[in-house]
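request received
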Amino acid sequence: MNETLRLLRAHRSIRKFTSETVTDAQVSEIVRCGQAAATSSNIQAVTVIRVRDAAKRERLAEFAGNQAHVASAGAFLVICADLNRARLACEGQGGTFCEGMTEHFILATVDAALLAQNCVVAAESMGLGACYIGGLRNNPQAVSDLLALPRQVYPVFGLCLGHPDQNPAVKPRLPLAAVLGEDVYPGAGQAEAIAAYDEEMRAYYRERSGGAKDSTWSLEMKALVGREARPHMRGFLADRGFTMM
Amino acid sequence: MNETLRLLRAHRSIRKFTSETVTDAQVSEIVRCGQAAATSSNIQAVTVIRVRDAAKRERLAEFAGNQAHVASAGAFLVICADLNRARLACEGQGGTFCEGMTEHFILATVDAALLAQNCVVAAESMGLGACYIGGLRNNPQAVSDLLALPRQVYPVFGLCLGHPDQNPAVKPRLPLAAVLGEDVYPGAGQAEAIAAYDEEMRAYYRERSGGAKDSTWSLEMKALVGREARPHMRGFLADRGFTMM
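response:
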């Protein structure tokens, strides 16, 4: 197993950081590594905002559901899916931007995620810790206003980066056999794999919480997908021009 | 610059492979590294299908727009956004799956992209080459039928993996200043950055094509976003249960 594989496998979210700074040079390198990821037809439909302003950081921490590390991390990036730049370029050549395509929305969202994951890997290779902040989607309009995002841009998630001040365990993942199929969707055996994983996660939660948390993956999924999630997203996206035609 | 940073920066798509095999052990490791990426609330809303069957590989190559490397690469993975497994788990606990949320669609699409990007980094660290195949979204229903994907699952893209039989140059990316803003969206200077990048890409295209291709990034964007793109996606996704409420 080479060093990069070891690094990838060792990932866990870090939410507690020391006060050591993350330098501009590090952020530049991290984002350049992000840019190096593949991008559909070279569209590069991503813009990253590094938020330094302390007042903005506090507000973003609130928007994300009072996640203090959003304010305290050495660096905080907001990763935005961005079709605005391609629109500018298109119109600059006398074209008419075809707004609202579902495909373009998928493309930009995927581009943002590919870039972000490379950022995480780059940061972790430098010894930094990272944590995605999907919580920004709790209040995406407020985030967009705070960062002056134009239409055709939406904040997909944030990224906390910093020197770790904790060393949590790596969370177990689903069995490979449940996630990797051969020629067809691995439908057979899903129930058994989920049951086995439920027990693995029960033990993980118990240990991580010192006995306080008694749950399983299935129970967490019941909570997560058994109810509405961020029902404002559709309307928010439509207002930004992502009408999903 | 550490080895991982060098690796990330060196990425370019590989579409020509030798006949050397990609082993099962390599694919397992690659997908485990994929699984190690962050996943929203541990939902792990991704399923990967490794397609070995030669006839299926040929059909997928056609579906993707006659991309021969889909059939010829040492390994071909179809990366699927998957809410079906979470649904199973939820219903197994007596819950009712809340179908069609836009947020869940975003979440699963992002999870798939994060996993895939880790797969690419892992593969490249092994000396393999990789290429994303967004072209599967040209015919997503046909792909879904071929792989027996249930509802609440959609193929985001494919991934060709193999031993490289070419050594293309790394494609230049947008200037960092256009992509990375400080506290606000970097609106000022976008036009200049695009203009500078246009000239850089003109030179890149000319060199790569031996003088045959005269284009710029803006002209490519006019072609890409100045017209409809995969207008079938909305209807396809709705049929799969991704109604985007």
